[in-house]
Give the backbone structure.
Amino acid sequence: MNIAKQIQIINNELPADVRLVAVSKLHPAEALMEAYDAGQRIFGESKVQELTAKYDALPKDIEWHFIGHLQTNKIKYITPFVSLIHSIDSVNLLQEVDKYAGKAGRKIDVLLQIHIAKEETKYGFSEKECCDFLKSEEYKTLNNINIRGLMGMATFTEDINVIRSEFKGLSSFFHQLKQHFFSSDDNFNELSMGMSEDYHIAVEEGSTLVRVGSKIFGERQY
Ligand SMILES: *Cc1c(COP(=O)(O)O)cnc(C)c1O
């Protein structure tokens, strides 16, 4: 892979208001540096240990996004520096992030992950759980987090109609929430959807953050 060239290709396709998150999980620091030298500043990682190691090794003006399932016992390792957590998938996790953000003296930006795929295995809130939470007293007590928007992953399928309808549904839910719960909050403005195989569709359906890995860095070695 010519990492710099891939980044340029993708950026040329993205509208000006859509940002590229380079998903660098399982790729070595040298690969991230190639992307960095090509101007990339937002990187997405899905394992805490890998993220902290890369944070230590790489330039400090990188914006680190956490995109994987986050275990509560590991939150404290990333709260001092993480820029955005895309994958808040339960109320308990959000409460814990709020607690550790407070300890780190920070207010941390997060997205609520909504379950939109057909697979049972993908994490996330249902629409109802999400609304119930936003109405709750519990939510009002969380002072160290900013809910910036939503994240979702489409079903793993070749059927672009399924993918498009899932992204459309998420986008419409995002606008409903904005109207009902965030009408006076201009910061509720991020919709994280789209990966290497489906980011074109996601952008057409209103994505503001695309999370692209293999199209930049090549296949991952597990
Ligand atoms: C790995 C991963 C991606 C990137 O996937 P690619 O298909 O390599 O672009 C995006 N989002 C999440 C949550 C991931 O775990």
The two ends are 18 Å apart (CA to CA). Residues 160-181 form the longest helix (22 residues).
